[in-house]
Design brief:
Layout: H1 2-22, E1 27-31, H2 41-50, E2 53-58, H3 63-69, E3 75-80, H4 85-90, H5 92-108, E4 113-119, H6 136-149, E5 157-159, E6 161-163, E7 167-169, E8 177-179, H7 184-196, E9 201-204, H8 207-213, E10 231-233, E11 236-238, H9 241-255, E12 263-268, H10 280-296, E13 309-311, E14 365-368, H11 378-389, H12 406-420, E15 434-437, H13 454-459, H14 463-470, H15 472-489
Parallel strand pairs: 1-2, 1-13, 2-3, 3-4, 4-5, 6-9, 9-12, 12-13
Antiparallel strand pairs: 7-8, 10-11, 14-15
Helix pairs in contact: 2-3, 5-6, 11-12
The structure holds 2-acetamido-2-deoxy-beta-D-glucopyranose (3 copies).
């Protein structure tokens, strides 16, 4: 009897424990808003919640996203763009103003759970040629001082999201990791400062960019299914570049006396369009591997406790700079409007949930007129004009619309322009080369978009206000109950 009871307790305990470990931990993601037609903030916050994201990173203190994140249960990292590093580095008062306007207000007035301030974004990227090398650390110090002055020193930590190119390995193996010689002293000062303030180091790691930059990069090694030739480093065998890259950083930290420095992965992801390696299949394969990895709770060989990993990114952004490549506008696990690109298992076999309540412009596409000729002298000028205002990155070589015939190719450009211009009158009239159609010209993975109606979203009551409206009676009842409890307690 006694042992039976013991056994049943054990059973209950193991069920409870299993429940705990099976509970999918929250996911973290980047939400950028460089879009001609941004998904409304309230819809985006619901999209985050519906898909289990409880941490989000913003690139700047955009008031709309921040307000919508208030009381959402989502923790926020709010970014400071590189252009602000200079003013923030030269004046403590500027930092105090920034924190007051962009952090304190949103915490106290809107209930936003801000946990981190990201000072700059990859400021030491080699491509920036030392532009932000002098200002980043002083800006970090000023922001930290301002947070303390605002009484937020414990609650909000300042960090600097850095690109993986701040460290390297001469041996080619993770164990050879150390910081880039030109910024090594600076890195050590920054890490010491972060460590003293209980703040983490934030690093962005991009297996995709390694592959994109190097035609000889072993493709399979970028993914997580262990299909590539493993890299043996002493007693450790690496089967994917994320682990190898992360452990190169851990080696660099160990070598400089910061072996237990906490690290956040600020960005990692795979774009779905814009170059041959950026496609739906590879993006799905990488991001599914990444999610499985996050959900497994495993760390890297050298750091078994898993870091917070912010997936890059939530939605596509059609006005991002394409300097790094056409893929820049296609990092989203969702399209720009929150529709699903490819299926993903988010953990516990939960699949992706699309954005709800999105309003679109009318179902009209602008296409090349049947009677217009491909040899019309106005055609090249027309399409290049359209593409200088609208996002035509899907038309490139190896991209989702790269195989269209010449007529459809021109139609794509004209339609993108028409939609980007909100279907305004006169924006589908390229010297009589175009007509409107109600037949969706999309085919074979090439999407002819209809844009979000941003005007309608502004005018219409946002879904959160209308649902709040509906819940007023139950809220009142709740308030009543709370009052009753308090009345009888005292
Ligand atoms: C708050 O942040 C925004 C966006 O980064 C910036 O434009 C603005 O100048 C900031 N406020 C202050 C007082 O610095
Ligand atoms: C497709 O359109 C783009 C952008 O207008 C243009 O650069 C390209 O030459 C076109 N390709 C074909 C096959 O017509
Ligand atoms: C467009 O077509 C109309 C009717 O055929 C004609 O009157 C007009 O001149 C044309 N416009 C241009 C720019 O070719």
């Amino acid at each position: 009897m006694g042992s039976f009871r013991y056994l049943s307790w054990l059973l209950i305990l193991s069920v409870v424990l299993e429940g705990v470990t099976l509970e999918v931990q929250g996911l973290a993601i980047n939400w950028g808003s460089r879009a001609s037609h941004p998904l409304p903030a309230s819809i985006t916050v619901q999209l985050l919640k519906d898909n289990g994201f409880d941490k989000v990173k913003l690139f700047e203190a955009d008031p709309e996203p921040l307000k919508a994140l208030g009381h959402s249960g989502i923790q926020v990292m709010v970014g400071i763009p590189n252009e602000l590093l200079e003013p923030l580095s030269s004046s403590v008062q500027a930092a105090i103003n920034w924190v007051s306007q962009n952090v304190s207000t949103f915490i106290s007035k809107y209930g936003v759970d801000i946990r981190y301030v990201a000072v700059g974004n990859e400021p030491f990227l080699k491509d920036y040629k030392d532009k932000f090398v002098k200002t980043t650390f002083p800006a970090l110090q000023n922001i930290q001082a301002a947070l303390i002055k605002a009484g937020l020193g414990r609650q909000v930590k300042a960090t600097v999201p850095l690109n993986g190119d701040v460290y390297q390995t001469d041996s080619g193996l993770p164990s050879g990791g150390d910081f880039r010689p030109d910024i090594r002293t600076l890195m050590i000062s920054i890490i010491k400062f972060l460590s003293n303030n209980g703040a983490p180091l934030t690093i962005n790691i991009y297996p995709f960019l390694s592959l994109d930059a190097d035609p000889n990069f072993p493709v399979e090694y970028a993914f997580f299914d262990g299909k590539g030739a493993p890299v043996v480093d002493g007693s450790i065998t690496y089967t994917n570049v994320l682990d190898a890259n992360f452990d190169t950083l851990i080696s660099a930290l160990e070598k400089n006396g910061f072996g237990s420095m906490p690290v956040i992965i600020g960005e990692v992801g795979w774009p779905s369009d814009g170059t041959p390696h950026a496609n739906i299949q590879s993006a799905r394969r990488f991001n599914q591997g990444l999610l499985n990895r996050i959900n497994s709770g495993k760390g890297s060989p050298k750091r078994p406790s898993p870091p917070d990993i912010y997936v890059f990114a939530l939605i596509d952004e059609d006005t991002k700079s394409v300097d790094p490549g056409n893929f820049e506008r296609h990092w989203g696990i969702f399209y720009y409007d929150g529709t699903i690109k490819y299926p993903l298992d988010m953990g516990n076999r939960k699949s992706l949930v699309a954005a709800k309540g999105v309003r679109y412009l009318s179902r009209h596409w602008c296409v090349m007129a049947p009677q217009a000729s491909l040899t019309d002298p106005n055609l090249p000028g027309g399409t290049s004009y359209a593409c200088s205002y609208a996002d035509c990155t899907s038309l490139g070589y190896g991209s989702s619309c790269g195989n269209l015939d010449a007529r459809s190719n021109a139609s794509y450009a004209f339609n993108m322009y028409y939609q980007t211009m909100d279907q305004r009158r006169g924006t589908c009239s390229f010297n009589n080369l175009t007509v409107l159609t109600v037949i969706d010209p999309s085919r074979d993975g090439c999407r002819f978009e209809i844009m979000i109606d941003t005007g309608k979203h502004e005018k219409a009551p946002s879904p959160s206000t209308s649902s709040r409206g509906k819940h007023v009676p139950s809220l009142l009842v709740l308030l009543h109950i709370v009052t009753l409890i308090f009345c009888c307690m005292y």
